[in-house]
C-alpha cells in the first residue's frame, strides 16, 4: 500500500512539474489584462457577431471548422474574440473544451509559434488532465528543454497533433488572436493550423488577424473555412462603434461635469470622425480626460480623423513639449524591449530617469506625457495598440531612432551593464547558505532585484542586436569591450545568482550561449570565464 501511494505521489509530482514547465503564460490572465487595459469588455459591442450568418455557419455546420476573422487595425478584433471566448465558455462549460491564446508582438514571451502551442496546450490539459500523458512521455526525458530548445516547435506540434487525434478528446474550440503579431515562425504556425483544422470533426478553430496577404495566401489552403471580414460587415461595426461612443461620452460627461452643449459636441465630433474605429475613439477620449471642460469645445477640432493622423498629432505635441527628448527616449526604449517593462525597470534603463527610480507617481506622469502612445497596467508599461508601435517604426522612425535602432539597443545594453555592475553582489536575498532550494526563496521587501530583472535577462540580447556587424568587423568600441570584460571578470557569478533568484535560469542559459559566441570576438579571457560558467551550470 505504501509503495503504491509513493508511486502515485511521484506521478502527481511529475505531472505538476510538467505543467509548471509547460506554462509560459496563463492565457486566462492575458485575457483579463487585455480587457482591463482596454477599459473593460462591453457585451453590446460584440453581441452582433453571434447573429452573424458567417459565424453561425461556422458554429453550426460540422464541416466548417475554421473561422478567420480579419480586419484593419483598431476595428476591435481582440475584444471581439474576448467576447466570443466568453460566449463559448458558457456553452461549453459542461460538455467541451475551450482554449485560446492572444499573441502580442511587443512581448517576446507571447509572440512566437511555440508560445501559441504552449498556451493552448496549457489550457487544454488544465480542463482535461488525462491529456498530459501526451506531453509527459516526452517531458520525462527532455524536461524543460522540450519546450525551449531548437527542436521545441517540432516536439510541440507533434504533441498537439497527437492530442487532436486522441479518441478521448472532448469537443474542443481553439482560438488564436492576432496572428499578425506572431513575430517568430508565423509561416509554420499557419501551416499547422491549415493542416490540423480539418484533422478532427470534434475540433473547431477561430483565428484573427489584420488583412495581410501572406496570411490569406496560407489560410486559403484550408478546406471548409469561413472568412468573416470586418470591412464587409461595416453596418454591424458602425453600430457597435456608435454604442461605444455613447458609452465613453456618458462616462466623460459624468467625470468632467460637461454641460449638454459640450457633451453633444463631443458626441457629434466622435461620431463624425471615428471611421468605425474603436481605437480612435478610445485614444481621443483618453486625451479629453486631460482637457478642462471649459476648453473642450475649442480643442475638439485638434483631433483629426484616422489613426495615422491622430498619431501624427500626438507626435506633434511631443515635438513641442518641454520634455520632447525625454519622451522620445522613453518611446525608443519601450519600442525595442523584448517584454513590457515596469516603471522601475524603465527608470534603470533610461539615464534621464535614474533620479526618479523611487518616485512612481512622477514616472507615471512622464509616461502620460508620451502622447497616449503608452498605457500602464499595474506597474507595467504597454503600447496602447500594436498600430502605435508600428507608427513609431514607420512614420516617426527618424524622430524616435535618429541613429537607428542599433543605437537604442546600445543604450539599453550599456545602462543594463552599468546598473548590474553597480548593484549585483553576493547573496542578494541574504539567504546566508549555499544550495538554498529555489522554490523556498521568498522575495524580500524591498526587493533589491526589482529594477534589475529585465536587465539581468535581456542585456545580452541588446548587446547582440546593437549591431552584430560591429562584432563581425571587430569594430566594437574599446570602452564597451572593457566594460563587458570587467563585468564578466567581477560580476559573472553574481549575475548567475540573480538569474536563479529571478527564476530565469533557462533564459540565462540561452543568454550565456549567445554571450559565449559574442565573446569570442571580444576577448579570449572573457570566453574562458564563460566556458567556466557553462561548466558551473552543467555541474
Automatic annotation (TrEMBL):
<dbReference type="InterPro" id="IPR027417">
    <property type="entry name" value="P-loop_NTPase"/>
</dbReference>
<dbReference type="InterPro" id="IPR007111">
    <property type="entry name" value="NACHT_NTPase"/>
</dbReference>
<dbReference type="InterPro" id="IPR054471">
    <property type="entry name" value="GPIID_WHD"/>
</dbReference>
<dbReference type="Pfam" id="PF24883">
    <property type="entry name" value="NPHP3_N"/>
</dbReference>
<keyword id="KW-0677">Repeat</keyword>
<dbReference type="InterPro" id="IPR056884">
    <property type="entry name" value="NPHP3-like_N"/>
</dbReference>
<protein>
    <submittedName>
        <fullName>NACHT-domain-containing protein</fullName>
    </submittedName>
</protein>
<dbReference type="Pfam" id="PF22939">
    <property type="entry name" value="WHD_GPIID"/>
</dbReference>
<feature type="domain" description="NACHT">
    <location>
        <begin position="65"/>
        <end position="290"/>
    </location>
</feature>
Amino acid at each position: 500500500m505504501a509503495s503504491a501511494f509513493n508511486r502515485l505521489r511521484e506521478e502527481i509530482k511529475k505531472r505538476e512539474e510538467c505543467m509548471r514547465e509547460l506554462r509560459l503564460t496563463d492565457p486566462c490572465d492575458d485575457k483579463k489584462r487585455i480587457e482591463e487595459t482596454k477599459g473593460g469588455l462591453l457585451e453590446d459591442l460584440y453581441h452582433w457577431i453571434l447573429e452573424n450568418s458567417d459565424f453561425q455557419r461556422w458554429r453550426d455546420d460540422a464541416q466548417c471548422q475554421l473561422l478567420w476573422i480579419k480586419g484593419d487595425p483598431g476595428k476591435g478584433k481582440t475584444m471581439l474574440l474576448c467576447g466570443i471566448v466568453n460566449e463559448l465558455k458558457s456553452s461549453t462549460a459542461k460538455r467541451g473544451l475551450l482554449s485560446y491564446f492572444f499573441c502580442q508582438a511587443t512581448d517576446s514571451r507571447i509572440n512566437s509559434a511555440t508560445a501559441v502551442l504552449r498556451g493552448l496546450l496549457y489550457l487544454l490539459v488544465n480542463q482535461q488532465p488525462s491529456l498530459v500523458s501526451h506531453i509527459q512521455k516526452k517531458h520525462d526525458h527532455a524536461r524543460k528543454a522540450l519546450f525551449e530548445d531548437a527542436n521545441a516547435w517540432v516536439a510541440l506540434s507533434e504533441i498537439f497533433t497527437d492530442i487532436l487525434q486522441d479518441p478521448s478528446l472532448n469537443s474542443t474550440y481553439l482560438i488564436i488572436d492576432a496572428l499578425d503579431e506572431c513575430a517568430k515562425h508565423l509561416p509554420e504556425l499557419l501551416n499547422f493550423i491549415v493542416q490540423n483544422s480539418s484533422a478532427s470533426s470534434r475540433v473547431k478553430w477561430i483565428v484573427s488577424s489584420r488583412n495581410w496577404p501572406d496570411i490569406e495566401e496560407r489560410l486559403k489552403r484550408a478546406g471548409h473555412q469561413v472568412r468573416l471580414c470586418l470591412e464587409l460587415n461595416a453596418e454591424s461595426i458602425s453600430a457597435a462603434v456608435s454604442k461605444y461612443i455613447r458609452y465613453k461620452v456618458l462616462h466623460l460627461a459624468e467625470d468632467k461635469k460637461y454641460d449638454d452643449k459640450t457633451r453633444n459636441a463631443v458626441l457629434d465630433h466622435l461620431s463624425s470622425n471615428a471611421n468605425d474605429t474603436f481605437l480612435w475613439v478610445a485614444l481621443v477620449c483618453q486625451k479629453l480626460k486631460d482637457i478642462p471642460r471649459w476648453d473642450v469645445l475649442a480643442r475638439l477640432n485638434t483631433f483629426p480623423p484616422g489613426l495615422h493622423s491622430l498619431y501624427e498629432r500626438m507626435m506633434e505635441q511631443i515635438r513641442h513639449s518641454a520634455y520632447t527628448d525625454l519622451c522620445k527616449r522613453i518611446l525608443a526604449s519601450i519600442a525595442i524591449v523584448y517584454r513590457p517593462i515596469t516603471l522601475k525597470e524603465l527608470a534603470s534603463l533610461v539615464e534621464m530617469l535614474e533620479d526618479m527610480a523611487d518616485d512612481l507617481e512622477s514616472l507615471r506622469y512622464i509616461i502620460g506625457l508620451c502622447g497616449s502612445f503608452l498605457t500602464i497596467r499595474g506597474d507595467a508599461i504597454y503600447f496602447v495598440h500594436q498600430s502605435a508601435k508600428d507608427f513609431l517604426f514607420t512614420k516617426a522612425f527618424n524622430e524616435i531612432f535618429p541613429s537607428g535602432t542599433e543605437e537604442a539597443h546600445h543604450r539599453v545594453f550599456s545602462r543594463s551593464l552599468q546598473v548590474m555592475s553597480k548593484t549585483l553582489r553576493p547573496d542578494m536575498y541574504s539567504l546566508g547558505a549555499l544550495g538554498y532550494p529555489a522554490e523556498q526563496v521568498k522575495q524580500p521587501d524591498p526587493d533589491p532585484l526589482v529594477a534589475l530583472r529585465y536587465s539581468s535577462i535581456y542585456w545580452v540580447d541588446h548587446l547582440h542586436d546593437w549591431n552584430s556587424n560591429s562584432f563581425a568587423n571587430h569594430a566594437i568600441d574599446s570602452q564597451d569591450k572593457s566594460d563587458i570584460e570587467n563585468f564578466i571578470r567581477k560580476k559573472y557569478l553574481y549575475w548567475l545568482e540573480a538569474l536563479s533568484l529571478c527564476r530565469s535560469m533557462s533564459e540565462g542559459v540561452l543568454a550565456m550561449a549567445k554571450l559565449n559566441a559574442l565573446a569570442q570576438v571580444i576577448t579570449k579571457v572573457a570566453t574562458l570565464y564563460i566556458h567556466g560558467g557553462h561548466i558551473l551550470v552543467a555541474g
